[in-house]
Amino acid sequence: MLKGDLRKQAILDTAENLFFEKGYAAATIQDILDALNCSKGSFYHHFESKLQVLTELCRQRAEAGYAEFKKQTYDDGLGYLNGLIYYAMPFRAGEDKNLSLLLPLQGLADGNVVLNAILEAQKKLFFPEISKTLEILKKQGQVYYTQPMLPEILWDTYTALYQRLMQEAAQIQEGSGTVGVIQLIETERFIWERLLDAPFGSMELIRGDEALQVIGHAVSRLRRMEGKKA
Q: Tens digit of pLDDT for each residue in 100-134?
């Protein structure tokens, strides 16, 4: 790795630690510079803003999810398809810290920028694999569809689910109930199975109990951070 790339990654790693420790809103560029003993010139050579740092971190998280997916083995094509969606979503075990970073941004302008960056990175990484897998499953007779745009439509339902789950998680953070998370996931499963004419129960996509546990851990972490600030 080149020296400039090493410096860029050092800024990202330092910023990520500070965002986790203090929260994105509270952490400043100066905090990053002080922790890294880095000049403003060096920082702005690589990034235009703190927001750009966060979007790059989220892109890297999407890449990490895809790399983790590629390490797995699956018994069949439907399992492979389920794995793609599972590892695209940040509602799996080990993602609570990342989720706690994103939740406070819900409804904010910076949050919309970050969300778009995440979804763009996910589509670039996961959607080609989903399309290819659906074609293989169709040839094998495990799913059935005739419309060539169906993979795009399914991806649209995925992005809608992602957005709705983030909204539900934000409501949980505010003290609302958790029923919506399970209902959203079950609805998504139903949509995929019906649109693909797949066997009932074949699409797991995301595990509702695991998603609720991850959200709960993220919310608890945020509350602990708020307690330290009080």
A: 999 999 888 999 999 999 999 999 999 999 999 99
Count other C-beta atoms under 10 Å from residue 194's C-beta: 11
Residue positions counted in the chain:
230
Of the CA atoms within 13 Å of residue 219, those in its CB half-sphere come to 20
3-state secondary structure the chain: CCHHHHHHHHHHHHHHHHHHHHCCCCCCHHHHHHHHCCCHHHHHHHCCCHHHHHHHHHHHHHHHHHHHHHHCCCCCHHHHHHHHHHHHCCCCCCCHHHHHHHHHHCCCHHHHHHHHHHHHHHHHHHHHHHHHHHHHHHHHCCCCCCCCCHHHHHHHHHHHHHHHHHHHHHHHHCCCCCHHHHHHHHHHHHHHHHHHCCCCCCCCCCCHHHHHHHHHHHHHHHHHHHHHHC
Letter for the amino acid at 160? A
Q: Taking 80 as the threshold, does the pLDDT of residue 230 lie above it?
A: no
